[in-house]
Design brief:
With 227 residues, the chain is mainly α. 80% of the residues lie in helices and 0% in strands.
Length: 227
């Protein structure tokens, strides 16, 4: 689980992994929750977080009432999945880690159901975004195989999707190590080279992972010399 990785990693890696969790939760939510969430925001008090969680519970219950009348409605299924994803982030912020896996298991369930009832007009880019969210949810609950498969599907549908590529770098860093992450980060860097803001982010990401790789190599060399 990502949370466990944060607790067990080194200081430098912890910084990147903590950023990773934030990106994973917010990176693919889209505009819906920027505008529609119940007073969602950063820097809120524990009491406010609890109030927001209660609001999400209420929103989920109302959405499920709508779904009961239309069990195969794609839009409602996506709405519920998105609500559970935002709920999971808030539970993490509240350090209620034992409840986080349930939220993300629901994310996977409702996005899977949505894809099973996807409209004919759903394009590859939009479907890839959903698979990216499924990958994220699988990763957070510790199911790396499910995350890997969902990332593969997302990138098959839309290889140039920058947000999915970015999340994939994060996943590879945590699951496969710096070498795999560095290769993916360089591919992401090339993908976004024409976007000033994203390119700056990509350059920083590649540099940070490269520094970790260099430190790892020096550490290994030092250990071999000591032996």
């Amino acid at each position: 689980m990502v949370i466990q990785k944060i607790r067990n990693t080194t200081k430098n890696q912890k910084t990147l992994l903590t950023v990773m969790v934030v990106v994973l939760i917010f990176g693919l939510l889209g505009s819906y929750f920027i505008w529609q969430s119940p007073d969602f925001g950063t820097g809120v008090s524990p009491e406010q977080i609890e109030d927001q969680l209660a609001a999400y519970d209420d929103s989920i219950a109302k959405a499920k009432e709508k779904l009961a009348k239309n069990p195969d409605d794609y839009s409602i299924l996506v709405e519920i999945a998105s609500l559970y994803q935002a709920q999971g982030e808030l539970l993490t912020a509240a350090e209620r880690y034992n409840e986080v896996p349930t939220s993300y298991a629901n994310v996977i369930e409702y996005y899977d159901r949505a894809l099973a009832n996807k409209p004919a007009e759903l394009n590859a880019a939009a479907e890839a975004d959903i698979y990216g969210k499924i990958a994220n949810a699988n990763w957070v609950i510790g199911y790396d195989e499910g995350a890997d498969a969902a990332f593969d599907k997302a990138l098959e549908l839309d290889p140039t999707n920058w947000s999915v590529n970015y999340l994939h770098v994060m996943f590879l860093f945590a699951s496969d190590g710096v070498d795999a992450a560095l290769d993916a980060a360089k591919a992401y860097q090339a993908l976004v080279k024409d976007d000033a803001d994203l390119s700056k982010n990509a350059d920083a990401l590649v540099n940070q992972i490269q520094q970790m790789k260099d430190k790892e190599s020096k550490s290994q060399d030092s250990e071999q010399e000591n032996q």
